[in-house]
User: What shape does this take?
Amino acid sequence: MLRHWEQVGVLTVRRDGNGYRVYDENALEQARTVLKLRRVGLSLPEVAAAMAPTKSAAQAVVRAKIAALESEVGRTQQAIVFLQHTVECRHRYLDDCPDCAMFVREP
Assistant: This one.
C-alpha cells in the first residue's frame, strides 16, 4: 500500500544510498494523513488534491467532499423515514397507502 501511495504521489519517501526506502518521521506523518483522509472517504486523487501545497486548493476538495457527504446523509435520512413508515404502515401494499405513494414521488 505504501509503495502504491508513493507511485500515485500522495506519499514522499526518501531513499538511502542503496536505493532503499527510508520511512522517516515526515513520511510516517504523511502516511498517517493519507490514512485519515482515506478513512473519511476521500479517494486517492482527492487525497492528493487535499494535500496540495496551497491551502485554497486543499480546502476546495475538502468542501466538495463535505457537500457530497451531507447529500448522502440527507438521502440516508429520507430512506430511514420511508422505511420506518413502511414498518408502521397499516396498509398491506405500499401502493394502497397515500403516504407511501408520496415518498415514491419525491425526488
